[in-house]
Amino acid sequence: MKELEVPVKDSLNKTVMKKIFKVAVVEWSKKDTNTFIQTESLAENLVSSMEYNIKKALEHKAVIIVFPAFTGCLYQLLKARPVLNDDLHFISEYSALNSTSSGILNSTLSNTPNTTLISTLKYSINNEDCFLKEIISISKKYNILICPGSYWAIDKTYNKQESGCQNDNPESRISEYEGYEDYEDNKLPINKIYHESCIVSNGNIILNQRQIYLAKWERKLGLSRGTDVELIDINGWNIGIILSTDVFYPQVSRKLALMGVDIVISPVGFIGEKNMALQISGMWQETQQNLFFALESGFNGGLGEIELWGESIIHAPLEMTKGDYGILERTNGKENLIIYELDNDMRKAAISKFNVLEGLNPELYNNYNNM
User: Fold this and answer.
1) Domain map of the chain by residue range?
2) pLDDT per residue over 182-191, tens digit each?
3) Contact 283, 317 (CB under 8 A)
4) Strand partners for 21
5) Eight-state DSSP code of residue 367
6) How would DSSP label each residue in 124-190?
7) Closest CA to 344 of 298, 299, 294, 292
8) What's the pLDDT tens digit per position in 93-110?
9) How many other CB atoms are there within 10 angstroms of residue 345's CB atom?
10) At 65, which helix (H) or strand (E)?
11) pLDDT by residue (tens digit) across 144-163?
12) What is the 3-state secondary structure (H, E, C) of 320-334?
């Protein structure tokens, strides 16, 4: 487990030393995401909104701010959209001249470029570094931990292309499609692409987490899965990330709990018709079964042709919440930023009343190193 002493101002340092951790959790509404998509500045408008929420969180002296899942993915799509539009004519000519062009090119031509994920994914992932550079730059300006939600990332050990922002030369980008198979034949990309999240502090990525279990629509995109969870000690608080679909796999939460996690960061976005019973069956249930705090941050709106929803909720063990509700704060779809002070002494007191982990055999779990 990594350990990190995060440099904070005196007022925040005193708060942390008292075992109080003030957190801020963002929710993107459908109105928010539509605004990002419809404005001329596209990705830049999304980053500006993130910075605005960071400033609001700092006004309340929050130590960490958590953004919804797919925030970076949306940035990547928005950044790629004008480039893809400019390239369609060039790609069409290239495909006509090169009969061996890969299936991803054909997919690009046969779909609406601004709405389909498969047709834009290969363009979008090359903007991973652009998104992270934006977040790293912001983190140098503000004294707060940032979880920027999630983004698509290429495994640099598999990818032969140099990482960086989207290349403006369409001809040079054609080579980026090499090594890809036809999605229509359900073949996966040779280069591994992951759905990832992270925590950034003072210009550094201090924790990185890949999604371990994939939803059906993510498997169709050809994404690869992570294999394990990570934990970091920040000023005496053990923090981990459970990303998106992983909230429905109890072994992920249980392993973090046995590692001693205090706070789970959980950026989410669910597909299908909105159903709060579904969301509660994920992170709320895992919080009660493992007795940690959880910061669930929801994305609402379109991601390509996929519609996502999710409410932002701060979870805690039943025994320390009013009415044994298991929820400390939530947006109820009416706010886009919630803030709360987490008290670890209160959590430990609640655990002492009913410790569901006490009778478990940690050594048995340790036999399963990978998920």
Assistant:
1) 2-366
2) 334 444 444 6
3) no
4) 342
5) T
6) HGGGHHHHHHHHHHHHHHSSSEEE---EEEE-TTT--SPPSSPPS-HHHHHGGGTT---GGGTPPPS
7) 292
8) 444 444 433 333 333 333
9) 11
10) strand 64-66
11) 999 999 999 987 654 444 44
12) HCHHHCCEEEECCCC
Query: Is the CB of residue 97 less than 8 Å from the CB of residue 72?
Result: no
The residue with tokens 């995060």 is 6
Strands 301-303 and 327-330, sheet pairing: unpaired
Question: pLDDT tens digit string along 218-256?
Answer: 988 889 999 999 999 998 999 999 999 999 999 999 999
Q: Cβ atoms within 10 A of the Cβ of 289, count?
A: 15
Contact assessment for residue 15 and residue 61, using Cβ atoms and an 8 Å cutoff = yes
State the residue for tokens 């999304």: 46
94 phi-psi bin (left φ>0, alpha ψ -120 to 50, beta other): alpha
How do beta strands 301-303 and 270-271 pair?
unpaired
CATH superfamily to which 2-366 belongs: Carbon-nitrogen hydrolase (3.60.110.10)
Mean pLDDT, rounded, of the chain: 79
Residue type, 323: G
- Closest of 267, 258, 147 to residue 198, by C-alpha: 147
Say whether pTM exceeds 0.90.
no
| Count of beta carbons in the 10 Å neighbourhood of residue 249 | 15
Torsion of CA 254, 258, 261, 262, to 10 degrees: 90
What's the pLDDT tens digit per position in 124-137?
666 667 899 999 99
Can you tell me which residue has the tokens 């007191």? Answer: 349
Contact of 268 with 283, CB cutoff 8 Å: yes
Question: What residues pair up with 183 in beta bridges, in sequence order?
Answer: none
Strand partners, 339: 24
Tokens 């959980």 sit on residue: 266
pLDDT digits (tens, 9 = 90+) for 62-121: 999 999 999 999 998 888 765 555 444 444 444 444 443 333 333 333 333 334 676 667
